[in-house]
Specification:
The complex is a heterohexamer, with three copies of chain A (113 residues) and three copies of chain B (438 residues).
Chain A lengths: L1 E7 L4 H10 L5 E9 L5 E5 L2 E5 L2 E10 L1 H15 L7 E7 L2 E4 L7 H4 L1
Antiparallel strand pairs in A: 1-5, 1-6, 2-5, 3-4
Helix pairs in contact in A: 1-2
Chain B lengths: L1 H18 L10 H28 L5 H28 L24 H22 L6 H24 L3 H4 L8 H19 L20 H18 L10 H30 L4 H16 L7 H24 L8 H19 L18 H31 L6 H6 L1 H6 L14
Classes of the chains: A alpha+beta (113), B mainly alpha (438).
The structure holds adenosine-5'-diphosphate (ADP) (3 copies).
One adenosine-5'-diphosphate sits at the interface of chains A and F.
């Protein structure tokens, strides 16, 4: 099992959800993050004081999948999130040692989906 | 913009000696003046109401922008209506426009009221007409474009329409009756918003490729509710204050009760209809219903009984809900319902005068349903159609010109990021975590 | 609900010819009318104040729901008090209720005031009584149940109590003195809230198994503070406006200073007591203290000196803090303090008339502490107890009936998710990240 | 604090018999009283405006604290101005201070107004002066220190300055002209804020080691905008109400138009300048510009024409933007711009009387630019300098004393965590996720 | 060392905290997330436009523990979070290679608690 | 590759960012969390009801780096975040199996920076 963490542009979330659904990946966890990467920030000013904002709004997806779903999931995220502009985001993949469904106590592959 | 300022300063120094003599003309009535001033304060406060309603109904990323627009259009109306507007509106009995009284120079107020008191009341109305448009064009209109638009509507378009109806122009000669401005203010604002929002095109993501509308929720219902309460309060200046005096307390009281009861009926009708149509009572549509009732009663408030006011309010609430729906079907994107509330119900209120007006209560003649035949109804229809044509035509030119000059719409990137950052370099809610996926 | 509407429309068409003749009865005083109208506007604006206070004191997930309730109860009061309420309250001198004037037909206003002006002032009061209850029953009461309750209280319960005290009923014949409604409005609202909140049971998670109360914080202190400022402003219409005229400027001025100074003392006393008891000055309790002072001064505002007003305010602030505590100990869950503010201090204000009233300032007779003995105190006590019994009894039946008809309380799931989503399918703060663990 | 309360109660019982006789002195004018009361209500409502502006301009973690300060300073002003302030301000014609009328005992209002009506108007002004300081010292001043400061300024400092200028003191004898309080209220409040914020030192993180200012954004622009609209509304009570009657409707109307048009010009000028200087139109600075225009027109509003009001407003908007900048350069940290808005423009408005005043409109003599020479200008300058010296001197002592007694500033830990938690044990926005890195 | 990530229903947080404390797990990191799983979403509507909400509010817990604490922690979370209804949540377990206490610079097992 | 997760005091974020930049670590993802650790909470009260707050505001940093950047990154975070008071925070290090740049589809070490 793997845990796939993706950082994407907020406005690509609907597209990413759609392409994940098409690949039968239905279970995801989403959170709000701020990211600093290659993308250029912008200037804010308040009462005349300037400020360079370099932490930009991003969406973080967490998707736990079985091995055979890893590549389809990656493909789906890339598909939905890619606009070919700086700031499109990253995908990180980690090993997931165990997964437990709280409701039933099931573990492992059967618990993930 | 800067030259405009220098123009001010120049004229100012030039006219200084003249101004001082204008004071103390004729005899004025203290009670009437007091009433009109208080009404003007309440109408002024409607700016806050519009600001809160519109800010609450847009997304958090565009809140400061719409507030800035609200604030500035009133400021610009204050100056523009001082320099040009009042003269165009009240400077003589020309059929089409007034011709003297620039800078309030060499002009008087109506009998019994100081010029300046009458001016502030009228200026607050002018600001209201201007500000309605901010909502309809929200979340994508450039700030500079909005400033230019504000100058034109408050200094020229609104005063000309006002002249036709209230300033001794052709419609007032025909006995067109619009007590407090269903047409003058609300049809003007509502249709300027309509043409503007059509020219601007819908917000990114508002309509799906198949044409169905998407859900884009306002970011703060408490602000919307507060704004509606403030507007309702302000309407107690708007309508009852349009008596322009307190010589007939019965009249003022009648206008007040009608205003209140039409708003209440509009809200209830709007709520019930939305409940029936969409399964749940929607706060935003209910509040729109209340405003619709207020807009509709604005023209006939003086010349109908409370029972009729209830009926007018109910129909207004219903029209508003359908209006919102129709615009969605027509793929016109009006984020706050400016067209459905002000445009549609401005028409309805104006027409209602021709249906329900009673001569015994002060209408030019009885309406259709009180045995007066079609005459008044025809005049009302003529008036409202003329105003719509004029507004749509002139504002089309204005918006097209502005578009050519500075552009009407912000860039796609700015729209996604929000106009607060793009236009003003700031966030409305600094520090708050806001989840946005559009 | 729909039939009610058709009833309107029907009656409307039926009575049309009648209505037009009601206008222009008797001679009215312009200044008095103006004063009462402005006061009515301010009292109307208290709806916004209640809306903001109550919305701010509940959790974000229930804010739209409470605002919707606030808006609708005023709308319903406007219609209900027009059709039934005014007649029940002012239709003749029956001991228990008025009997004519349905739809404001065939009834007059008091001397010197247009009927419609007096009506709007009274209707705004009626809306206030209704809205108090929204807060006490917040965060768990069904929206439909609330609408039904609103109809009953504003069309029937409140007007009957109003008749007893202000409409020529039995308590007014006994010289019961309640200048601006500590009993009529606040005891009525506060005790309706009490019985309602008891019947509803506490919110999920409010009390631990051991009976100790849990911390459920309001979601927006700025809204609460704004609401209190608006209410305080509105009270300048509520109390001074209850002179129903401007014949005696000294009286109006005295009412005004007393209102202001009791509010200030209530806030200070509430703050200091809460500080002493809980270690820190609590904003919500301080604001409750100000409201408590306002509620308490409402009955005696005309007939005491400012020094006494300070004393009344201080005691009100103290009672309010204890009231909040007592309810927690009794495991009665009143999310906004409606009972402690309006119920407890409505009693206190009414009783204060019997303690501190001065005949020289217009009280029926001197109070106990001014050598008038126990007579007035007894009358005040009798009045307030009667009203409490009537409110608790009738509202118990009303709530039980509503419970049987549509259910009083939302489901557990809906309560956890929030009534905004459950009842209205929307969020108050779309896009904001809100951390909630209840 | 408790003994103060017991003092009240004691005095109260002691003076009870006396008070009752004070009523019904002389003949009062109903219309004037009504006007002054309504104006007082509007000025009272400015507290809400200040509360919203200041709360919106600070960070979310300090919002409840500033609202609590706003609420309490008005409460304290109500009591303090009742016990001491009114007597110091209006108790006789001493050059420096009034000497009788404690507890409003044995003193009258001005001709034609009930004492209590005049008091409430004056008390609302007093509260305004006090509350200005909350903003300048925001986000780091201890709550107890603020309470102590409030008592001193509203019971002593403000009334003494008021006496000099409006109460028959030495400046009023010199014909110093400050119609509605550019100096009395705004210079007093603004300079008390200046000395306070200097003594407090800047907020943690406001200035970098190299002295450049850091970005610390306010947390809610909608609250700020709402607050400015409310303040603008309140100013229609502040300035026009300062006629203290409605005998001259022309005068009231002139004051009103000038107030409105100066605010509008200030906002536009502020916006354009900020746009030019910083590249984008800044909402907070634009709103500050509107307030600056209002503050500046406060002294000369009665004695200039609208053209001059525009000029005064423009200059005010410009001065405000520069004022904000200057303070940043001087490393004085004024979170809401209290000094730039009230201090700087209070001076400007006062001086403007000496430049633009016209005797024909009621000025003591013509100003410099109307051929009156330097006399009035000199008097105005003398007045404003004296007040500044007195405020700075006395408040320096007051703040130093408070610092020694209870400490002026909260601990570093508390400042980081926020004063809402530190001082009041609560959060303003319970449940909201707020990202804060200061 | 393991990193335990649990996604639970928001209103179960107090119960989960309680049962963790009982198992002597005191250190946790909590965040707000939106989750899409088996649980049914709900309808929202705004001004007449309907919208299906499928991202539901959830709480995410992150708990770093030594090996011997893994099972007790899992048991505690399940215990506190389980209501036997769809949406109860999931637990994910990953290998934690290193842990550093910033204040002291301590590393490994000693740093975790 | 490693994924470094750090929980720090919110007011240390500017310092941490600065010291990361000095070590040429430019790409980070930041989120808002609540933490419960050794640091003492505080009392809140609302309308007279007391409440002990033990979940304190913290900032969570996620930094994906290549092996040779691990120690410099740790050092930088410790450097920026350390104030030697309880509550300074923790750093957790996990193995990162894959990293993908969405814009280009690049994988592994080249995608990370
Ligand atoms: N090495 C990293 N560690 C943590 N987060 C990262 C890393 N690289 C990128 N990110 C996250 O991904 C987001 C997008 O990265 P960016 O480099 O701007 O995209 P791209 O390289 O595709 O143009 C960043 O804002 C940040 O949140
Ligand atoms: N495979 C997964 N990857 C990421 N998050 C998941 C996954 N499965 C479940 N979740 C998270 O757990 C939450 C609860 O899951 P759900 O399937 O509804 O619970 P259950 O299966 O216990 O009924 C989801 O809302 C989601 O946030
Ligand atoms: N074992 C852990 N699991 C998850 N989060 C932890 C753990 N230990 C610490 N934290 C996080 O780090 C923050 C700081 O921890 P704390 O123990 O207070 O710091 P320190 O030990 O440096 O004084 C906590 O608030 C919590 O968010």
């Amino acid at each position: 099992m793997k845990l796939i963490v993706a950082i994407i542009q907020p406005h690509q979330l609907p597209a990413v959800k759609k392409s994940l659904y098409e690949k039968q990946v239905y279970k995801i966890t989403v959170s709000n993050v701020l990211g600093c990467g290659e993308e250029k920030g912008y200037q804010e000013s308040f009462r005349g004081v300037q400020h360079e904002v370099d932490l930009l709004k991003k969406i973080r997806l967490e998707i736990a999948v079985n091995e055979d779903f890893v590549e389809p999931t990656i493909a789906a995220v890339v598909d939905g999130a890619r606009t070919n502009t700086v700031g499109d985001g990253k995908i990180f993949i980690m090993d997931l040692q165990e997964c437990i469904r709280i409701r039933t106590g099931e573990r492992g592959n059967r618990a993930i989906g | 913009m800067k030259c405009l300022f220098f123009l001010f300063i120049f004229t100012l120094i030039f006219t200084m000696p003249v101004m001082a003599q204008d004071m103390n003309i004729g005899s004025v009535n203290a009670l009437d003046t007091l009433w009109v001033l208080i009404a003007a304060f309440l109408v002024f406060f409607m700016q806050a109401g519009f600001g809160m309603v519109e800010a609450g109904l847009v997304r958090a990323k565009n809140a400061a922008n719409i507030l800035m627009k609200n604030m500035l259009d009133f400021c610009i109306a204050s100056i523009g209506f001082f320099i040009f507007g009042y003269a165009l509106m009240f400077g003589g009995n020309g059929a089409l426009l007034g011709t003297y009284g620039w800078f309030l120079n060499g002009i008087k107020g109506p009998d019994g009221l100081p010029l300046y008191a009458f001016w502030i009341f009228q200026a607050a109305f002018c600001g209201t007409a201007a500000t309605i448009v901010a909502g309809g064009m929200a979340e994508r209109m450039k700030f500079t474009a909005y400033l230019l638009y504000s100058i034109v509507i408050s200094a020229f378009i609104y005063p000309i329409i006002g002249h036709w109806i209230w300033g001794g122009g052709w419609l007032s000669n025909l006995n067109f009756h619009d007590f407090a401005g269903s047409t003058v203010v609300h049809v003007t604002g509502g249709f300027a918003a309509l043409i503007g929002t059509i020219l601007l095109k819908p917000r990114i993501g508002k309509f799906n490729p198949d044409g169905s509308p998407n859900f884009i929720a306002g970011h703060s219902m408490p602000l919307v509710a507060l704004g509606v309460f403030i507007l309702w309060l302000g309407w107690f200046g708007f309508n009852p204050g349009s008596t322009l005096g307190f010589g007939d307390p019965e009249l003022v009281a009648r206008v007040t009760i009608n205003t209140n009861i039409a708003a209440a009926s509009g809200a209830i009708a709007g709520m019930l209809l939305a409940w029936g149509k969409y399964g749940k009572p929607d706060l935003a549509l209910t509040l729109n219903g209340a405003l619709a009732g207020l807009v509709a009663i604005t023209a006939p408030c003086a010349i109908v009984t409370p029972m009729i006011a209830i009926l007018i309010g109910i129909i207004a609430g219903v029209l508003c809900i359908f209006g919102v729906r129709w615009l969605d079907l027509l793929k016109v994107d009006d984020p706050v319902g400016a067209v459905a509330v002000h445009g549609v119900n401005g028409i309805w209120g104006t027409v209602a005068v021709g249906l329900f007006g009673q001569a015994v209560l002060g209408a030019p003649r009885n309406g259709l349903l009180f045995g007066g035949g079609f005459t008044q109804l025809g005049i009302q229809a003529l008036g409202v159609v003329s105003v719509i044509l004029f507004v749509v035509g002139s504002m089309w030119i204005v918006f097209k010109t502005i578009d050519a000059m500075v552009g009407l719409r912000v860039s796609e990137k700015e729209e996604l990021q929000g106009l607060d950052i793009g236009e003003h370099g700031m966030e409305s809610y600094s520090g708050f975590e806001i989840f946005t996926t559009e």
